């Protein structure tokens, strides 16, 4: 039981950064950024490879820089070269597969055996005792959430929010949408890569397929959190929802993993169904209401 | 002063949908002019405004503002000194952001070197509150309300304030009261005249309201077929009545029909 709680908390905190990234790209900018899967692995690959060379902290910084580069490529494709936004993400994602293999020394996985990670370094300080992973994960999560809250209230943050909210008005308000979309996607992918970077050091390995479905899981956790916290009401709630949704999702995941209520291979399908239903909910509700009216009025 | 020199714009060139929206149009706007623009649908009024504000680049010709050539400047740069209002009150504001946040965005035009990581200051909040008070709609007490919850009239008033909180060199009003109920339309028109005369803003206003066209401002343009067919100022305009304008309007519309007939018979 304690093990389940520890796993849920530490993974929930770490993966909440992906939800935070999707909050920025999908909710704020209204762009479905499919760079996410590849970018997550990119962060993981860079971080673990650097940690394998003995520099775990430097690994995080390099991972964030790599994520920024990936996000900028996607933004460049759609703002300057006219590639449709979903396709831009898919193109970057495809290219990243090769980049990720390269970052892991042309191998499909890298493991840390004896090398230090940020988690072993943190454990040796004694803070948090057996819960050291959760504590460190929470520190990262809260730092990133605070940063995001601050950032969105700055003038640049306001400009990015307006870009997603009403594209017509931004250029009439002297805001350059090319610039705000680029900043938004770059920053979002920094968060995604950081999430992969921390996750990689926690599990002491990086795998080329670790990112499959991350974007859908991220959306699922974002939606779960929003539903639980009634999160679309304010920016602060929405940011908190990223964390809450992730902890809930990871708790369910850990319970399934431990008890095998449903086969673990079935989780991706379940996640996909949750996301599809959650996004479709308003349309389904409307259709049901209409049918009810039709039945009543056509009698 | 705004000068438009031999500007042309053709949409969908080389296709069956080819449309000459601006046909070698030249116009000189003096400082402090308040110009009303009338013309039937498709006469090129909105295209003229879009060309001035840089939504697209003109196919040929030049646009000068205070002697500076702005023909190839992108729209977000021009919006530092050109304010725009559209017919649709939803177009000018961000619905999920608060009144205060919307005004803060508009206020970015004041100084584009402002630190992008700075936040709205208390002094700015005071300034916004004072400006909102002038609208006399009670919006100053709802600064933290999302704009999407306001009525069309309130949103258009806010858009007007946003376009003028940093006084622009030129204000372009594209039928900005046409989608509002009569009472709201009257209120917005009154506010417009107040703000324009207070700041001595140079202003162009498209309207289908012929009463407005002859009573508001100091100059009236009539457009047809992508060009200016009538330009009235001074005493000529002073003696102009609505029925005069209506007659000229019909004549122009008739001439276009005749042209079409000639084309079709050939």
Features of the shown structure:
heterodimer, A: mainly alpha, two-stranded antiparallel ribbon, 12 helices, B: 266 residues, alpha/beta, four-stranded antiparallel beta sheet
Commentary on this structure:
The complex is a heterodimer of chains A (299) and B (266). With 299 residues, chain A is an all-alpha fold. Chain A has a single domain (2-261), classed as Orthogonal Bundle (ABC transporter involved in vitamin B12 uptake, BtuC). Chain A is built from 12 helices and 2 strands; from the N terminus they run H-H-H-H-E-H-H-H-H-H-E-H-H-H. Chain A has helices spanning 2-28, 36-52, 56-79, 85-103, 118-123, 132-153, 155-165, 167-172, 177-203, 214-229, 235-259, 267-297, and strands spanning 109-111, 205-207. Chain A has a two-stranded antiparallel ribbon with strand order 1-2. The radius of gyration of chain A is 20 Å and the shape is globular. The relative contact order of chain A is 0.19. With 266 residues, chain B is α/β, with parallel strands linked by helices. Chain B has a domain at 2-93 and 152-243: Rossmann fold, CATH 3.40.50.300. Helices cover 38% and strands 23% of the residues of chain B. Chain B has 9 helices and 10 strands. Chain B has helices at residues 45-53, 75-78, 99-107, 122-135, 152-164, 182-199, 210-215, 234-238, 242-265, and strands at 2-11, 19-29, 34-38, 60-65, 68-69, 82-85, 170-174, 202-206, 219-224, 227-233. In chain B, the strands form 2 sheets. Chain B has a 6-stranded mixed sheet, sandwiched between helices. A 4-stranded antiparallel sheet of chain B has the order 2-1-4-5, with helices on one face. In chain B, a hairpin with a 2-residue loop joins strand 4 (60-65) and strand 5. In chain B, helix 3 runs parallel beside helix 5 and helix 5 packs parallel to helix 6. The longest helix of chain B is centred in the last third of the chain and has 24 residues, at 242-265. Chain B is globular, with a radius of gyration of 20 Å. The mean pLDDT of chain B is 88.
């Amino acid at each position: 039981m304690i093990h389940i709680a520890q796993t849920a908390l530490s993974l929930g905190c770490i993966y909440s950064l992906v939800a935070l990234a999707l909050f920025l790209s999908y909710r704020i900018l209204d762009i479905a950024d499919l760079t996410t899967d590849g970018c997550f692995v990119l962060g993981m690959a860079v971080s673990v490879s650097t940690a394998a060379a003995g520099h775990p902290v430097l690994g995080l910084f390099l991972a964030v820089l790599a994520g920024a580069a990936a996000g900028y490529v996607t933004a460049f494709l759609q703002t300057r070269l006219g590639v449709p936004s979903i396709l831009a993400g898919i193109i970057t994602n495809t290219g990243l597969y090769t980049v990720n293999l390269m970052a892991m020394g042309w191998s499909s996985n890298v493991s840390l055996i004896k090398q230090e990670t940020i988690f072993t370094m943190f454990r040796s300080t004694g803070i948090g005792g057996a819960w050291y992973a959760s504590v460190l994960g929470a520190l990262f999560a809260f730092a990133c959430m605070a940063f995001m809250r601050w950032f969105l209230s700055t003038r640049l943050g306001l400009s990015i929010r307006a870009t997603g909210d009403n594209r017509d008005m931004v250029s009439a308000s002297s805001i350059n949408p090319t610039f705000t979309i680029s900043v938004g996607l770059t920053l979002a992918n920094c968060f995604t890569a950081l999430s992969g970077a921390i996750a990689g050091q926690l599990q002491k390995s990086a795998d080329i397929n670790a990112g499959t479905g991350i974007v859908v899981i991220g959306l699922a956790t974002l939606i779960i959190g929003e539903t639980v916290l009634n999160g679309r009401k304010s920016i602060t709630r929405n940011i908190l929802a990223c964390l809450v949704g992730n902890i809930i999702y990871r708790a369910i995941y850990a319970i399934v993993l431990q008890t095998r209520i449903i086969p673990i291979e079935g989780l991706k399908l379940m996640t996909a169904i949750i996301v599809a239903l959650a996004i479709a909910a308003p349309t389904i509700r409307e259709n049901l209401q209409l049918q009810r009216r039709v039945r009543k009025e056509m009698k | 002063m705004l000068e438009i020199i031999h500007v042309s714009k053709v949409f969908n060139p080389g296709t069956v949908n080819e449309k000459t929206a601006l046909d070698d149009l030249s116009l000189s706007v003096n400082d402090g002019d308040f110009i009303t623009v009338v013309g039937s649908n498709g006469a090129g009024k909105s295209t003229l405004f879009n060309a001035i504000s840089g939504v697209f680049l003109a196919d040929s010709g030049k646009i000068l503002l205070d002697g500076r050539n702005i023909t190839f400047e992108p729209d977000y740069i021009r919006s530092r000194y050109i304010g725009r209002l559209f017919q649709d009150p939803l177009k000018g504001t961000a619905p999920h952001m608060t009144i205060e946040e919307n005004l803060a965005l508009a206020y970015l035009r004041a100084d584009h070197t402002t630190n992008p990581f700075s936040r709205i200051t208390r002094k700015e909040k005071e300034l916004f509150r004072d400006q909102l008070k002038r609208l006399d709609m009670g919006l100053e007490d709802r600064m933290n309300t999302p704009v999407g919850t306001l009525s069309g009239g309130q949103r258009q008033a806010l858009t007007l304030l946003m376009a003028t909180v940093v006084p622009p060199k030129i204000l372009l009003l594209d039928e900005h009261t046409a989608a509002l109920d009569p009472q709201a339309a009257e209120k917005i028109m009154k506010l417009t005249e107040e703000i324009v005369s207070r700041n001595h803003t140079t202003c162009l206003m498209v309207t289908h309201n012929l009463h407005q066209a002859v009573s508001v401002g100091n100059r009236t343009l009539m457009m047809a077929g992508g060009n200016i067919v009538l330009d009235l100022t001074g005493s000529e305009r002073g003696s102009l009545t609505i029925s005069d304008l209506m007659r000229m309007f019909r004549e122009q519309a008739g001439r276009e029909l005749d042209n079409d007939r000639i084309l079709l018979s050939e």
